Amino acid sequence: MHEGSFIEHPLVIRLRRIVVVLLVLIFVGALLRPIESPAWQVVKSGQSELNLEGIEGSLGQGLVVGVLGGFRAIMADFMWIRVNTIWERRDRTKLDAMIRLSTTLDPRQSFFWFNGARMIAYDVPNWRIREEGGYSEVPDSRQDEINREQAEQAFIFLEKAREFHPDEPKLVVEVAQIYLNRLKDIPNAADWFLKTSKMPNAPYFAARIYAELLRRQGLDREAYDYLRELYSELPNDPYAQKNIILERIRTLESILEVQYLLRFNPGDVSPVIAPANSHPEHSHHGHNH
Amino acid sequence: MIDSINRLRFIAGNTFLEAVRQKFFNSLLLISIALLASSTFFQQFDFGTNELKFITDFGFGALFFFGSILSVTATTQLFFNEIENRTALTMLAKPIHKLEFLAGKFFGAHMLMLCFTAVITLVLAGMLYWRETELMARLGDAFIDGRLVNYSDIFVFGLLQWMKFGVLTAITLFIASFSNTNLYTIVVSFFVLIICQLQYIARDAYSTMEAGIGRWLVQFLGLIFPNFQLFNIGDQLVFNVKAPIPAVTILQIVGYGLIYTVVFVLLAHVNFRRREI
């Protein structure tokens, strides 16, 4: 009798109903796994922003994708306008946060990534040096330290960008440019220009700059061999600027005093007009040097 | 059986008519269309996204955002109107089974969502077609391989969204079946919607977690809440991407949505049949 009244207690009835509902949902969830899992794998593989493994701090990313859905693009655009206002005010703390917010909102926009990296690597060091007294007051060692710190931040930022855009050469060439222009680190810049040149749709200039950087390091022979190989591999596309490469080959032949008979023979290669849809300054395929 | 279907059709039809006449539905539909039509204006704030991609994103955003609001609020309102106006009492006094009443309400609300989804999808397809035709005339070389947008797949995406709204409607109905107020139903339904939208994060996280209470809890959450992110495949469907979605995946997603819809309507019935009106 007592047991019966306990079972009939409204609270117990309610609890029993909750347990039944949960058990049904668990059962259905488990039953649907064989349908859901393969479908989810297909959906996930096609959307880089859903692949959270290996992306640090990806919780925010997932939240944004889940909650804002298609509106995240326009939200990110408005955020980027705000980034520019903050950039004009030179508020570097807010700038960093807002750049990251824009790329979290819409990581598909490569524009945000490389422009954000430029702000971090080029503009912020200027502001920091000015805050500490200006270029004439701050010792070179301190300036180098600031440049190095900011460049490191930009490199981490660009590394994250490459997780979303693994085939985007602009993001790789940006690392090379920072090494070259901000850190004046020619060996590392050369490595990154070489990496860029090997990517599909890499800009032609990446390979040319790599050769030039070899030359600046005193590696004239390596630069010469590389340019000879490059010339043979490049298509007869005006944007490839093979005439410039040939000029550099000739200059290096003079410097290296290459015998006339051993000099590079470009063969009978006449430039042709590029097809209308060819992308300016971009190769169709990566080079394999 | 035929009588039951007729009663269900009658309730669903009336529910649908009542919903379509509501100012809320009409204003939400107009706002969505206006927002979609203004996507070309908002495009001027964009930083380099393909125009067609931007419009598509915007359209899908409007469909998800306003569709979710409509699905939750319309279902709640349609259900509680019958309870508060005591029309449910009159109806259930007749030989109408409570499951027929619930299913009728569900189908009425679901038809409303079909109208909403169809209109938004049509407007989006029209906008994209207009812009793409203009772009083709201006930049013919960029369209050498033909149109970039798969128009039929916009409607496939619309269908998937409608399936998702079906699950959401059924969940709302389930919550309404044990809730006493409009507000409680709407708030809890939106919380559940957010959990369903985000449960994939927990799912992905538990695969790398060490065995323990945390992992069990996440696994449990992953089982009881449907994964709404599964329905968001607009990007892969609409634009010619390297890996298009296979038809079998679409069917799996549709099946997944249908099963969850039926389960939640039946669970709502479990609660509602014992409810005193």
Short description:
The complex is a heterodimer of chains A (289) and B (277). In chain A, 69% of the residues lie in helices and 0% in strands.
CA(first)-CA(last) distance of chain A = 88 Å
Q: Would you tell me the overall average pLDDT of chain A?
A: 83
Pattern of helices and strands of chain A: HHHHHHHHHHHH
What Rg of chain B do the Cα atoms give?
Answer: 21 Å
Please indicate the percent range of residues of chain B in DSSP E strands (runs of 2 or more).
Answer: under 5%
Shape verdict of chain B: globular
Keywords:
heterodimer; A: mainly alpha; 12 helices; 0% strand; disordered C terminus; B: 277 residues
Description:
- The complex is a heterodimer of chains A (289) and B (277).
- With 289 residues, chain A is mainly alpha-helical.
- Chain A has 2 domains: 58-160, no CATH class; 167-289.
- Chain A has helices spanning 2-7, 10-45, 58-68, 72-89, 92-105, 110-131, 140-164, 169-182, 186-197, 204-216, 220-233, 242-256.
- In chain A, α4 (72-89) packs antiparallel against α5 and α8 runs antiparallel to α9.
- Chain A is elongated, with a radius of gyration of 28 Å.
- Mean pLDDT of chain A is 83; it is low at 268-289.
- Chain B has 277 residues and is mainly α.
- Chain B has one domain (2-272).
- Chain B is 78% helix and 0% strand.
- Chain B has helices at 2-20, 23-37, 39-42, 51-84, 87-93, 98-138, 151-178, 182-206, 213-224, 234-238, 247-272.
- The longest helix of chain B is centred in the middle third of the chain and has 41 residues, at 98-138.
- Chain B is globular.
- The mean pLDDT of chain B is 87.
- Chains A and B meet through α2, α3, α4 and α6 of A and α4, α8, α9, α10 and α11 of B.
What's the layout of helices and strands?
The complex is a heterodimer of chains A (289) and B (277).
Chain A: H1 2-7, H2 10-45, H3 58-68, H4 72-89, H5 92-105, H6 110-131, H7 140-164, H8 169-182, H9 186-197, H10 204-216, H11 220-233, H12 242-256
Chain B: H1 2-20, H2 23-37, H3 39-42, H4 51-84, H5 87-93, H6 98-138, H7 151-178, H8 182-206, H9 213-224, H10 234-238, H11 247-272
